[in-house]
Amino acid sequence: MAAKIIDGKQIAAEVQGELGARIQKLSARGITPGLAVVLVGEDPASISYVTAKERACERLGIFSSDNRLPSDTSEQDLLDLIAQLNADPHIHGILVQLPLPKHIDSGRVIAAIDPAKDVDGFHPVSMGNMLLGLPGFIPCTPHGVLVMLEKSGFKTEGAEVVVLGRSNIVGKPLAALLSQKRPNGNATVTVCHTRTQNLAEHTRRADILIAAAGSPGMVTGDMIKPGAVVIDVGVNRVDAPDTNKGYRLQGDVVYEEALQVAGAITPVPGGVGPMTITMLLFNTVESAERG
Ligand code: GUN
Q1: Which of 26, 34, 84, 138 could join 143 in a cystine, given CB atoms 3.0 to 4.6 angstroms apart?
Q2: Residue 285 C-alpha to ligand 1 middle, in angstroms?
Q3: What is the pLDDT along the chain (291 residues), one digit of tens a residue?
Q4: Domain end point (choices 67, 97, 114)
Q5: Is 97 one of the catalytic residues?
Q6: What's the CATH code of the domain at 234?
Q7: Is 144 found in the same domain as 47?
Q8: Alpha-carbon gap, residue 164 to 209, rounded angstroms
Q9: Hey, what long-range contacts does 179-185 have (CB within 8 A, 24 or more apart)?
Q10: Is the dihedral of CA 286, 157, 226, 173 positive or negative?
């Protein structure tokens, strides 16, 4: 039987509906949540992410400040902008789109963001709080994956979860959250990466398989346990000369194969992507509520 498709757009719409009510309450108090988006350079994928984030803000009534800087912007100019945004009372969240150009130290830039406005959850203080189970901002993609699992009725408690990828943005925080003693946690987590041996032996054990390696089509049908829940975080641009754009988006999972084996699966696009944006809005609203 073909897998159930986990519709990220539908779940995102549901969460955004809940956020709409919270934004109205803030509005009654004279507060408009504000998100500053900072993009350095002209990377096409980054431009498209940033534009999608700004459009989502507009739809929901979140003020967004668009800061697009040329690729030769100096690190100091970027740090000065961050300082200005940290001090701006209309801004509750600051997002610096990654990756930054090579001449800029992204660690230094992220560390310059006020943790109270770190809606990406990438600041060392946010990461530390998350690891300790203390209040703070949870990175958007991992948070989106947890909400997706919860709203689709898939329990993580006691489940064997395999995470492919150990990035700071997705793999590392996801593994930490899923293994914690917390709602949507309590899973037995295995993290696989480029040095993992016998990868398929690990992935075939997974009740929930989360592919976040950034490698198009690396998970084939034979690597999936029958009936497993497969979450595909990969958004890879692969050449497609026959299309208008010249590329198409492909996940880390071979979708057609996985569909025949898995119990449930997220599509690409329309799976995790809409959830990432939604959790950014969620963090921005939370920040505005904290005041
Ligand atoms: N680049 C890819 N994903 C992300 C994200 O979630 N946040 C930021 N700031 N940059 C990214």
Answers
A1: 138
A2: 18
A3: 799 999 999 999 999 999 999 999 999 999 999 999 999 999 999 999 999 999 999 999 999 999 999 999 999 999 999 999 999 999 999 999 999 999 999 999 999 999 999 999 999 999 999 999 999 999 999 999 999 999 999 999 999 999 999 999 999 999 999 999 999 999 999 999 999 999 999 999 999 999 999 999 999 999 999 999 999 999 999 999 999 999 999 999 999 999 999 999 999 999 999 999 999 999 999 999 998
A4: 114
A5: yes
A6: 3.40.50.720
A7: no
A8: 8
A9: 180/133, 181/133, 182/133, 183/150, 184/146, 184/147, 184/149, 184/150, 184/156, 185/156, 185/157
A10: positive
Domain count across the chain = 2
Give the span between the Cα atoms of 97 and 161, in whole angstroms. 29
Residues with CB under 6 A from ligand 1: 95-98, 120, 140-141, 169, 276
Q: What are phi and psi of 264, to 5 degrees?
A: -155, 150
| 180 among known catalytic residues | no
Q: Which of 117, 118, 120, 172 is catalytic?
A: 120
198 C-alpha to ligand 1 centroid (Å): 30
Given ligand 1 and candidates 97, 174, 278, 282, which is best to mutate, with the most ligand atoms within 8 Å of its CB? 97
Which residue's CA is the nearest one to ligand 1's atom 8?
A: 97
Q: How far is CA 210 from the centre of its chain?
A: 13
| 118 vs 138: CA distance, rounded Å | 9
Partner residues linked to 93 by β-bridges: 35
